[in-house]
């Protein structure tokens, strides 16, 4: 038994020595973090401000009634296409028609009175003229002359009063006819009935405000009303490109140009939001009022350019440069060893950056797990520590 132990002891010592040799000299260094890399490749890049918006028609009109009464007939319904001048609704015209007829009758009465007074005036003028001729011959008295002149003046005054009353009634008749015409409501524009706010048989009161019956909108061009936070609004400029998607068509990109930034903000839950507006054509009618939109205001964009993940960029000691050309440090794998390079980038997003100088397509850059080393740093075999 003693001989057997002495025989295996050298073999065990040799095995331990071999294991230590492999661990300290030949085994890979697994104590450092695992390197995660990504390739430098060509891609499209876009730096944009994102916001949520709501679609609304560019042109629309609320169609109401200018007179009170019962909505007797409604000739259209929501969603229907209408043409300018098309009859939309009718208000009960009984009262307004009666008013027109009564005013016309009063006007006819005054016109008859005027004709009578004009005949009286003619007779009074003849009598006054006769009395003036007789006074020259001393065939009448001065009192008779004065009486004839007074009768003529009275007839003339009565005619003037009747003419004034006739003008007043003509004005009232014009108003009555206008009210009668308002009982028939026509479309002021070509478009789509997007909302119906009154029902047939409903009594409408126009004494204070004009009741709205329907809303007509031109859906051929839509406006996207976007709410932008005060932190981002300074990055927007009128005329900049903008695009959006809708929930129903998330893969369809629709483009436009920023038309207007409204100066008065809205405060929602203590958050200050500014409205930015842009228009988009809607020839297929797929865009409808009140749809939600994910909006992207494009500050800068480049197509098919070299890009590098932002996670691979590390600030230089002097800090990143300002302006469109910024410099950063990156670690690039060369023969499996990370080497530091300085790169110049252009357009940047939260995910990637445009490479202007310092990298080539296919380079593998370290995005995590790399050590902060000098440009010439290399990893050698780990030395034994005792």
Automatic annotation (TrEMBL):
GO terms for molecular function: efflux transmembrane transporter activity. Its main location: membrane. GO terms for cellular component: cell envelope; efflux pump complex; extrinsic component of membrane; macrolide transmembrane transporter complex. Residues 59-214 form the Multidrug resistance protein MdtA-like barrel-sandwich hybrid domain. It is a lipid-anchor. The keyword Cell inner membrane applies. This is RND family efflux transporter MFP subunit. Residues 221-295 form the Multidrug resistance protein MdtA-like beta-barrel domain. Residues 93-179 form a coiled coil. Belongs to the membrane fusion protein (MFP) (TC 8.A.1) family. It comes from Pseudomonas saudimassiliensis. It holds the Pfam family HH_MFP_RND. Residues 106-183 form the Multidrug resistance protein MdtA-like alpha-helical hairpin domain. It comes from the Bacteria. Keywords: Cell inner membrane, Cell membrane, Coiled coil, Membrane, Transport. Residues 304-370 form the Multidrug resistance protein MdtA-like C-terminal permuted SH3 domain. NCBIfam families: RND_mfp (TIGR01730). It is found in: Cell inner membrane; Membrane. GO terms for biological process: xenobiotic detoxification by transmembrane export across the plasma membrane.
